[in-house]
Amino acid sequence: MRSRKVQVMVIGFFIMWTFITYYVLLRTSNAQLSRKQQQQLKRLVPEALAEQSKGLQLTRNLIEFLKYKYSSNEQPGTTTTTPRISIVAAEISNEIPAPESGVKATAESKSTPSQIPTQTHLANGEPVIPILVFACNRVSVVKCLDNLVQYRPSVEQFPIIVSQDCGDVLTKEAIQTFGKQLTLIEQPDLSDIVVLPKEKKFKGYYKISRHYGWALNTTFQIGFDFVVIVEDDLNVAPDFFEYFLATHKLLKQDPSLWCVSAWNDNGKANVVDTTRPDLLYRTDFFPGLGWMLTKELWQELSVKWPKSFWDDWIRHPEQRKDRVCIRPEISRTRTFGKIGVSNGLFFDKYLKHIKLSEDFVQFSKINMSYLLKDNYDKAFLKQVYVLPLVTFDELRRNLIALDGPVRIQYNNRDQYKRITRMLGLMDDFKSGVPRTAYHGIVSFYYNKRRVHLAPNANWKGYDLSWS
Q1: So which cofactors does this thing need (predicted)?
Q2: What 3-state DSSP class applies to 27?
Q3: Within 10 Å of residue 159's Cβ, how many Cβ atoms?
Q4: Which of 63, 136, 325, 360 could form a disulfide with 166 if both were Cys (CB 3.0 to 4.6 A apart)?
Q5: Is 374 known to be catalytic?
Q6: Its pTM surpasses 0.70
Protein backbone atom coordinates (compact mmCIF):
# COMPACT_ATOMS: atom_id res chain seq x y z
CA MET A 1 0.00 0.00 0.00
CA ARG A 2 2.84 2.33 0.91
CA SER A 3 4.51 1.65 -2.45
CA ARG A 4 1.30 2.60 -4.22
CA LYS A 5 1.24 5.98 -2.43
CA VAL A 6 4.86 6.64 -3.36
CA GLN A 7 4.03 5.76 -6.96
CA VAL A 8 1.12 8.24 -7.05
CA MET A 9 3.18 11.01 -5.39
CA VAL A 10 6.09 10.63 -7.81
CA ILE A 11 3.84 10.57 -10.86
CA GLY A 12 1.90 13.59 -9.57
CA PHE A 13 5.12 15.54 -9.00
CA PHE A 14 6.40 14.97 -12.52
CA ILE A 15 3.07 15.79 -14.13
CA MET A 16 2.81 19.01 -12.10
CA TRP A 17 6.40 19.97 -12.98
CA THR A 18 5.74 19.32 -16.66
CA PHE A 19 2.67 21.53 -16.85
CA ILE A 20 4.21 24.35 -14.82
CA THR A 21 7.23 24.43 -17.16
CA TYR A 22 4.96 24.40 -20.19
CA TYR A 23 2.83 27.25 -18.77
CA VAL A 24 5.92 29.40 -18.13
CA LEU A 25 7.08 28.77 -21.70
CA LEU A 26 3.72 29.87 -23.09
CA ARG A 27 3.65 33.01 -20.96
CA THR A 28 7.15 33.91 -22.11
CA SER A 29 6.31 33.38 -25.78
CA ASN A 30 3.19 35.56 -25.49
CA ALA A 31 4.85 38.51 -23.75
CA GLN A 32 5.48 41.76 -25.57
CA LEU A 33 9.04 41.45 -26.85
CA SER A 34 11.32 43.55 -28.99
CA ARG A 35 12.09 42.36 -32.50
CA LYS A 36 15.57 41.31 -31.42
CA GLN A 37 14.19 39.36 -28.46
CA GLN A 38 11.61 37.68 -30.72
CA GLN A 39 14.36 36.52 -33.05
CA GLN A 40 16.34 35.17 -30.10
CA LEU A 41 13.24 33.42 -28.78
CA LYS A 42 12.58 31.80 -32.15
CA ARG A 43 16.06 30.31 -32.09
CA LEU A 44 15.54 29.04 -28.55
CA VAL A 45 12.09 27.50 -29.12
CA PRO A 46 13.37 24.18 -30.59
CA GLU A 47 15.81 23.78 -27.68
CA ALA A 48 13.11 24.56 -25.11
CA LEU A 49 10.72 22.15 -26.78
CA ALA A 50 13.40 19.48 -26.82
CA GLU A 51 13.98 19.87 -23.07
CA GLN A 52 10.23 19.75 -22.51
CA SER A 53 10.02 16.57 -24.56
CA LYS A 54 12.74 14.99 -22.43
CA GLY A 55 10.72 15.81 -19.30
CA LEU A 56 7.59 14.21 -20.73
CA GLN A 57 9.54 11.15 -21.83
CA LEU A 58 11.06 10.86 -18.36
CA THR A 59 7.56 10.86 -16.90
CA ARG A 60 6.41 8.20 -19.36
CA ASN A 61 9.46 6.06 -18.58
CA LEU A 62 8.83 6.37 -14.85
CA ILE A 63 5.19 5.36 -15.25
CA GLU A 64 6.19 2.35 -17.34
CA PHE A 65 8.82 1.38 -14.78
CA LEU A 66 6.37 1.58 -11.90
CA LYS A 67 3.76 -0.37 -13.88
CA TYR A 68 6.36 -3.05 -14.51
CA LYS A 69 7.54 -3.10 -10.89
CA TYR A 70 4.13 -3.30 -9.23
CA SER A 71 1.84 -4.78 -11.88
CA SER A 72 3.95 -7.40 -13.67
CA ASN A 73 2.57 -10.92 -13.53
CA GLU A 74 5.77 -12.52 -14.79
CA GLN A 75 7.42 -14.98 -12.47
CA PRO A 76 10.96 -14.23 -11.26
CA GLY A 77 13.62 -15.78 -13.43
CA THR A 78 11.50 -15.96 -16.57
CA THR A 79 12.87 -14.56 -19.79
CA THR A 80 11.21 -13.27 -22.90
CA THR A 81 12.38 -13.69 -26.44
CA THR A 82 12.28 -11.13 -29.20
CA PRO A 83 10.65 -12.30 -32.43
CA ARG A 84 12.67 -11.86 -35.55
CA ILE A 85 11.61 -8.97 -37.77
CA SER A 86 10.78 -10.43 -41.15
CA ILE A 87 8.29 -10.54 -43.96
CA VAL A 88 6.53 -13.33 -42.04
CA ALA A 89 5.54 -10.89 -39.29
CA ALA A 90 3.72 -8.68 -41.77
CA GLU A 91 1.84 -11.69 -43.07
CA ILE A 92 0.95 -12.98 -39.61
CA SER A 93 -0.41 -9.55 -38.70
CA ASN A 94 -3.23 -10.13 -41.16
CA GLU A 95 -4.60 -12.67 -38.70
CA ILE A 96 -5.44 -9.83 -36.31
CA PRO A 97 -9.04 -8.68 -36.74
CA ALA A 98 -9.45 -5.04 -37.77
CA PRO A 99 -11.24 -2.69 -35.33
CA GLU A 100 -14.98 -2.49 -35.78
CA SER A 101 -16.28 0.39 -37.85
CA GLY A 102 -16.82 3.48 -35.75
CA VAL A 103 -13.97 2.58 -33.38
CA LYS A 104 -11.21 3.60 -35.77
CA ALA A 105 -10.10 6.76 -33.96
CA THR A 106 -9.82 7.64 -30.30
CA ALA A 107 -11.59 10.58 -28.73
CA GLU A 108 -8.37 12.57 -28.98
CA SER A 109 -8.00 11.85 -32.70
CA LYS A 110 -9.25 14.43 -35.12
CA SER A 111 -9.24 14.70 -38.86
CA THR A 112 -7.18 17.59 -40.16
CA PRO A 113 -8.54 19.31 -43.26
CA SER A 114 -5.99 18.89 -46.00
CA GLN A 115 -4.16 22.06 -46.98
CA ILE A 116 -1.84 20.27 -49.37
CA PRO A 117 -1.03 22.38 -52.46
CA THR A 118 -3.19 21.24 -55.37
CA GLN A 119 -0.90 22.30 -58.22
CA THR A 120 0.53 19.10 -59.72
CA HIS A 121 2.53 20.61 -62.63
CA LEU A 122 4.37 23.86 -63.24
CA ALA A 123 3.52 26.17 -66.13
CA ASN A 124 6.40 24.67 -68.14
CA GLY A 125 4.99 21.15 -67.74
CA GLU A 126 7.49 19.99 -65.12
CA PRO A 127 5.91 17.88 -62.35
CA VAL A 128 5.46 19.18 -58.83
CA ILE A 129 7.27 16.70 -56.56
CA PRO A 130 6.16 16.95 -52.92
CA ILE A 131 8.57 16.02 -50.14
CA LEU A 132 6.54 13.95 -47.66
CA VAL A 133 8.19 14.04 -44.22
CA PHE A 134 7.05 11.44 -41.69
CA ALA A 135 7.09 12.71 -38.10
CA CYS A 136 5.91 11.42 -34.74
CA ASN A 137 7.34 12.58 -31.42
CA ARG A 138 10.83 13.83 -32.29
CA VAL A 139 11.19 17.56 -31.65
CA SER A 140 14.51 17.22 -33.49
CA VAL A 141 12.49 17.05 -36.71
CA VAL A 142 13.42 20.75 -36.94
CA LYS A 143 16.94 19.67 -37.97
CA CYS A 144 15.51 17.75 -40.91
CA LEU A 145 13.14 20.57 -41.87
CA ASP A 146 15.86 23.23 -41.60
CA ASN A 147 17.91 21.24 -44.11
CA LEU A 148 15.04 20.80 -46.54
CA VAL A 149 14.04 24.47 -46.41
CA GLN A 150 17.67 25.58 -46.74
CA TYR A 151 18.41 23.57 -49.90
CA ARG A 152 15.00 23.69 -51.58
CA PRO A 153 15.40 25.41 -54.97
CA SER A 154 11.69 26.01 -55.58
CA VAL A 155 8.79 26.25 -53.14
CA GLU A 156 6.35 25.66 -55.99
CA GLN A 157 8.01 22.55 -57.40
CA PHE A 158 8.96 20.97 -54.07
CA PRO A 159 6.22 21.61 -51.49
CA ILE A 160 7.12 20.15 -48.09
CA ILE A 161 4.32 18.16 -46.46
CA VAL A 162 4.89 16.99 -42.90
CA SER A 163 2.63 14.12 -41.84
CA GLN A 164 2.55 13.70 -38.08
CA ASP A 165 1.42 10.62 -36.20
CA CYS A 166 1.35 10.15 -32.38
CA GLY A 167 -0.37 13.47 -31.60
CA ASP A 168 2.69 14.77 -29.73
CA VAL A 169 1.97 18.44 -28.94
CA LEU A 170 5.57 19.60 -28.60
CA THR A 171 6.58 18.08 -31.93
CA LYS A 172 3.57 19.71 -33.60
CA GLU A 173 4.52 23.10 -32.17
CA ALA A 174 8.09 22.66 -33.40
CA ILE A 175 6.82 21.89 -36.91
CA GLN A 176 4.49 24.88 -36.83
CA THR A 177 7.39 27.28 -36.22
CA PHE A 178 8.12 26.93 -39.96
CA GLY A 179 4.83 28.61 -40.77
CA LYS A 180 3.91 28.75 -44.45
CA GLN A 181 7.17 27.15 -45.54
CA LEU A 182 5.45 23.76 -45.22
CA THR A 183 2.10 22.04 -44.81
CA LEU A 184 1.28 19.99 -41.72
CA ILE A 185 -1.21 17.12 -41.94
CA GLU A 186 -2.08 14.89 -38.99
CA GLN A 187 -2.85 11.19 -38.94
CA PRO A 188 -6.46 11.04 -37.73
CA ASP A 189 -6.34 7.45 -36.48
CA LEU A 190 -4.44 7.35 -33.20
CA SER A 191 -6.26 4.28 -31.90
CA ASP A 192 -4.37 1.43 -30.35
CA ILE A 193 -3.49 -1.53 -32.56
CA VAL A 194 -4.27 -5.09 -31.46
CA VAL A 195 -1.35 -7.40 -32.21
CA LEU A 196 -0.41 -10.98 -31.50
CA PRO A 197 1.33 -11.39 -28.11
CA LYS A 198 4.69 -12.23 -29.70
CA GLU A 199 4.52 -9.01 -31.76
CA LYS A 200 3.74 -6.72 -28.81
CA LYS A 201 7.28 -5.34 -28.62
CA PHE A 202 7.02 -4.26 -32.23
CA LYS A 203 3.72 -2.43 -32.06
CA GLY A 204 5.53 0.70 -33.21
CA TYR A 205 6.14 -0.91 -36.60
CA TYR A 206 2.41 -1.50 -36.99
CA LYS A 207 1.68 2.16 -36.30
CA ILE A 208 4.37 3.26 -38.75
CA SER A 209 2.89 1.10 -41.50
CA ARG A 210 -0.58 2.49 -40.82
CA HIS A 211 0.80 6.02 -40.92
CA TYR A 212 2.62 5.44 -44.22
CA GLY A 213 -0.50 4.06 -45.83
CA TRP A 214 -2.67 6.98 -44.74
CA ALA A 215 -0.15 9.71 -45.60
CA LEU A 216 0.69 8.34 -49.05
CA ASN A 217 -2.99 7.91 -49.89
CA THR A 218 -3.71 11.45 -48.71
CA THR A 219 -0.85 12.92 -50.75
CA PHE A 220 -1.22 10.94 -53.97
CA GLN A 221 -4.97 11.54 -54.13
CA ILE A 222 -4.18 15.18 -54.97
CA GLY A 223 -2.88 13.95 -58.34
CA PHE A 224 0.92 14.14 -58.03
CA ASP A 225 2.95 11.87 -60.33
CA PHE A 226 5.84 11.49 -57.86
CA VAL A 227 6.42 11.75 -54.11
CA VAL A 228 9.74 11.79 -52.24
CA ILE A 229 9.58 10.19 -48.78
CA VAL A 230 11.79 11.53 -45.98
CA GLU A 231 11.88 10.39 -42.35
CA ASP A 232 12.09 12.95 -39.55
CA ASP A 233 15.64 11.92 -38.55
CA LEU A 234 17.35 12.59 -41.89
CA ASN A 235 19.70 15.36 -42.97
CA VAL A 236 19.90 15.94 -46.71
CA ALA A 237 22.76 16.95 -49.01
CA PRO A 238 22.95 20.30 -50.87
CA ASP A 239 22.00 18.60 -54.18
CA PHE A 240 19.22 16.43 -52.71
CA PHE A 241 16.53 18.15 -54.77
CA GLU A 242 18.69 18.28 -57.89
CA TYR A 243 19.24 14.53 -57.62
CA PHE A 244 15.53 13.72 -57.71
CA LEU A 245 14.79 16.38 -60.30
CA ALA A 246 17.25 14.70 -62.69
CA THR A 247 16.24 11.08 -62.02
CA HIS A 248 12.43 11.22 -61.86
CA LYS A 249 12.14 10.79 -65.63
CA LEU A 250 13.94 7.45 -65.42
CA LEU A 251 11.05 6.00 -63.40
CA LYS A 252 8.71 6.73 -66.30
CA GLN A 253 11.13 5.62 -69.02
CA ASP A 254 12.24 2.29 -67.59
CA PRO A 255 9.62 -0.18 -66.25
CA SER A 256 12.39 -2.15 -64.55
CA LEU A 257 12.90 0.78 -62.13
CA TRP A 258 10.56 1.30 -59.20
CA CYS A 259 12.36 3.78 -56.96
CA VAL A 260 15.16 6.31 -56.74
CA SER A 261 16.90 6.37 -53.35
CA ALA A 262 19.27 8.96 -51.90
CA TRP A 263 20.89 6.33 -49.67
CA ASN A 264 23.90 4.03 -49.96
CA ASP A 265 23.79 1.28 -47.32
CA ASN A 266 27.56 0.84 -47.70
CA GLY A 267 28.19 4.57 -47.79
CA LYS A 268 30.84 4.83 -45.08
CA ALA A 269 33.61 7.30 -45.98
CA ASN A 270 36.32 4.61 -46.20
CA VAL A 271 34.46 2.50 -48.78
CA VAL A 272 33.18 5.16 -51.21
CA ASP A 273 35.03 7.11 -53.89
CA THR A 274 34.84 10.66 -52.57
CA THR A 275 36.09 11.98 -55.92
CA ARG A 276 32.96 10.66 -57.72
CA PRO A 277 29.90 12.27 -56.13
CA ASP A 278 28.23 12.09 -59.56
CA LEU A 279 28.34 8.28 -59.75
CA LEU A 280 25.00 6.42 -59.60
CA TYR A 281 24.13 2.71 -59.69
CA ARG A 282 21.25 0.33 -60.19
CA THR A 283 20.53 -1.93 -57.22
CA ASP A 284 18.20 -4.86 -56.59
CA PHE A 285 18.11 -3.92 -52.90
CA PHE A 286 15.46 -1.42 -51.78
CA PRO A 287 17.44 1.19 -49.78
CA GLY A 288 14.72 3.59 -48.55
CA LEU A 289 15.90 6.48 -46.33
CA GLY A 290 14.96 9.30 -48.70
CA TRP A 291 13.34 7.78 -51.78
CA MET A 292 11.01 8.61 -54.65
CA LEU A 293 8.13 6.54 -55.99
CA THR A 294 5.51 7.06 -58.66
CA LYS A 295 1.73 7.32 -58.48
CA GLU A 296 1.46 4.08 -60.45
CA LEU A 297 3.61 2.16 -57.97
CA TRP A 298 1.55 3.41 -55.04
CA GLN A 299 -1.65 2.38 -56.79
CA GLU A 300 -0.17 -1.11 -57.09
CA LEU A 301 1.09 -1.37 -53.51
CA SER A 302 -1.67 0.46 -51.64
CA VAL A 303 -4.31 -2.20 -52.25
CA LYS A 304 -2.20 -4.79 -50.41
CA TRP A 305 -0.23 -2.54 -48.01
CA PRO A 306 0.92 -4.58 -44.98
CA LYS A 307 -0.07 -3.98 -41.37
CA SER A 308 3.56 -3.98 -40.23
CA PHE A 309 7.22 -4.02 -41.30
CA TRP A 310 6.45 -2.37 -44.63
CA ASP A 311 10.13 -2.06 -45.64
CA ASP A 312 10.81 -5.80 -45.24
CA TRP A 313 7.54 -6.49 -47.04
CA ILE A 314 8.41 -4.24 -49.98
CA ARG A 315 11.69 -6.13 -50.48
CA HIS A 316 9.94 -9.45 -50.90
CA PRO A 317 9.96 -10.94 -54.43
CA GLU A 318 6.16 -10.75 -54.64
CA GLN A 319 6.37 -6.97 -54.36
CA ARG A 320 9.72 -6.26 -56.01
CA LYS A 321 9.06 -8.37 -59.11
CA ASP A 322 12.74 -8.07 -60.15
CA ARG A 323 12.46 -4.28 -60.27
CA VAL A 324 15.38 -2.15 -59.08
CA CYS A 325 16.25 1.23 -57.60
CA ILE A 326 18.78 3.91 -58.41
CA ARG A 327 21.23 4.70 -55.59
CA PRO A 328 24.24 7.03 -55.32
CA GLU A 329 27.91 6.35 -54.66
CA ILE A 330 27.80 8.97 -51.90
CA SER A 331 24.61 9.26 -49.86
CA ARG A 332 22.38 12.31 -50.20
CA THR A 333 20.81 11.58 -46.81
CA ARG A 334 22.25 10.80 -43.40
CA THR A 335 20.35 9.67 -40.32
CA PHE A 336 20.84 11.24 -36.90
CA GLY A 337 18.05 9.25 -35.24
CA LYS A 338 19.67 6.61 -33.08
CA ILE A 339 16.62 6.29 -30.82
CA GLY A 340 13.43 4.99 -32.41
CA VAL A 341 11.33 1.87 -32.88
CA SER A 342 14.41 -0.01 -34.14
CA ASN A 343 16.28 0.77 -30.88
CA GLY A 344 19.39 1.96 -32.71
CA LEU A 345 19.77 -1.21 -34.78
CA PHE A 346 22.99 -0.87 -36.87
CA PHE A 347 23.38 2.80 -35.85
CA ASP A 348 26.70 2.75 -33.96
CA LYS A 349 28.34 0.22 -36.25
CA TYR A 350 27.20 1.55 -39.63
CA LEU A 351 24.65 4.34 -39.88
CA LYS A 352 26.45 7.08 -37.97
CA HIS A 353 29.50 6.58 -40.22
CA ILE A 354 27.63 7.14 -43.50
CA LYS A 355 29.19 10.01 -45.43
CA LEU A 356 26.79 12.75 -46.51
CA SER A 357 27.77 14.33 -49.81
CA GLU A 358 28.92 17.93 -49.48
CA ASP A 359 29.23 18.61 -53.21
CA PHE A 360 26.57 20.00 -55.50
CA VAL A 361 26.38 17.87 -58.63
CA GLN A 362 24.33 19.29 -61.49
CA PHE A 363 22.66 15.96 -62.23
CA SER A 364 20.12 17.59 -64.54
CA LYS A 365 22.97 18.38 -66.95
CA ILE A 366 24.23 14.77 -67.00
CA ASN A 367 22.98 12.22 -69.51
CA MET A 368 21.27 9.63 -67.31
CA SER A 369 20.58 7.12 -70.07
CA TYR A 370 23.44 4.90 -68.87
CA LEU A 371 21.17 3.89 -65.96
CA LEU A 372 18.49 2.43 -68.22
CA LYS A 373 18.43 -1.36 -68.00
CA ASP A 374 19.63 -2.26 -71.50
CA ASN A 375 22.50 0.22 -71.43
CA TYR A 376 23.55 -0.52 -67.87
CA ASP A 377 23.48 -4.30 -68.07
CA LYS A 378 25.55 -4.44 -71.24
CA ALA A 379 28.26 -2.20 -69.80
CA PHE A 380 28.25 -3.15 -66.12
CA LEU A 381 28.00 -6.94 -66.24
CA LYS A 382 30.50 -7.24 -69.08
CA GLN A 383 32.94 -4.99 -67.24
CA VAL A 384 32.78 -6.85 -63.91
CA TYR A 385 33.43 -10.37 -65.20
CA VAL A 386 36.51 -9.48 -67.24
CA LEU A 387 38.23 -7.85 -64.26
CA PRO A 388 41.22 -9.53 -62.54
CA LEU A 389 40.14 -11.95 -59.82
CA VAL A 390 41.90 -11.29 -56.48
CA THR A 391 41.57 -12.43 -52.87
CA PHE A 392 40.62 -10.30 -49.92
CA ASP A 393 44.08 -10.76 -48.43
CA GLU A 394 45.72 -9.44 -51.61
CA LEU A 395 43.39 -6.47 -51.57
CA ARG A 396 43.93 -5.75 -47.88
CA ARG A 397 47.73 -5.97 -48.10
CA ASN A 398 47.80 -4.03 -51.37
CA LEU A 399 49.59 -6.88 -53.17
CA ILE A 400 47.83 -6.33 -56.51
CA ALA A 401 50.32 -5.44 -59.24
CA LEU A 402 47.81 -3.93 -61.69
CA ASP A 403 46.06 -0.62 -61.21
CA GLY A 404 42.33 -0.23 -61.67
CA PRO A 405 39.21 -2.13 -60.56
CA VAL A 406 39.25 -5.76 -59.43
CA ARG A 407 36.83 -8.54 -58.58
CA ILE A 408 36.54 -10.73 -55.48
CA GLN A 409 34.42 -13.85 -55.84
CA TYR A 410 32.09 -15.39 -53.25
CA ASN A 411 30.43 -18.78 -53.67
CA ASN A 412 28.13 -19.15 -50.67
CA ARG A 413 26.41 -17.20 -47.92
CA ASP A 414 29.02 -17.81 -45.20
CA GLN A 415 31.85 -16.77 -47.49
CA TYR A 416 30.00 -13.57 -48.41
CA LYS A 417 29.35 -12.68 -44.77
CA ARG A 418 32.96 -13.36 -43.78
CA ILE A 419 34.37 -11.13 -46.54
CA THR A 420 31.94 -8.25 -45.93
CA ARG A 421 32.66 -8.26 -42.21
CA MET A 422 36.38 -8.01 -42.86
CA LEU A 423 35.75 -5.14 -45.28
CA GLY A 424 33.43 -3.29 -42.90
CA LEU A 425 30.42 -3.63 -45.22
CA MET A 426 26.89 -4.52 -44.10
CA ASP A 427 26.64 -8.31 -44.19
CA ASP A 428 22.91 -8.97 -43.92
CA PHE A 429 20.36 -10.02 -46.55
CA LYS A 430 16.72 -9.08 -47.09
CA SER A 431 14.74 -11.66 -49.06
CA GLY A 432 18.10 -13.10 -50.12
CA VAL A 433 19.42 -9.80 -51.54
CA PRO A 434 22.66 -8.30 -50.12
CA ARG A 435 22.57 -4.57 -49.47
CA THR A 436 23.43 -2.48 -52.58
CA ALA A 437 23.69 -5.64 -54.75
CA TYR A 438 22.90 -5.74 -58.46
CA HIS A 439 22.79 -9.22 -60.00
CA GLY A 440 24.48 -10.32 -56.79
CA ILE A 441 27.37 -7.87 -57.27
CA VAL A 442 28.22 -5.45 -54.44
CA SER A 443 30.42 -2.56 -55.60
CA PHE A 444 32.52 -0.42 -53.27
CA TYR A 445 35.83 1.45 -53.03
CA TYR A 446 38.82 0.13 -51.08
CA ASN A 447 42.51 1.12 -50.96
CA LYS A 448 41.93 3.66 -53.76
CA ARG A 449 40.44 1.19 -56.21
CA ARG A 450 37.00 0.04 -57.30
CA VAL A 451 36.15 -3.45 -56.06
CA HIS A 452 33.26 -5.68 -57.09
CA LEU A 453 32.32 -8.47 -54.70
CA ALA A 454 30.60 -10.83 -57.13
CA PRO A 455 29.18 -14.35 -57.34
CA ASN A 456 30.54 -16.71 -59.94
CA ALA A 457 29.66 -16.05 -63.57
CA ASN A 458 26.92 -18.70 -63.71
CA TRP A 459 24.93 -17.04 -60.90
CA LYS A 460 21.34 -18.35 -60.83
CA GLY A 461 19.64 -15.60 -58.82
CA TYR A 462 19.01 -14.67 -55.21
CA ASP A 463 18.37 -17.41 -52.65
CA LEU A 464 15.69 -16.61 -50.04
CA SER A 465 17.33 -19.01 -47.59
CA TRP A 466 20.32 -16.66 -47.31
CA SER A 467 18.26 -14.16 -45.27
Answers
A1: Mn(2+)
A2: helix
A3: 22
A4: 136
A5: no
A6: yes
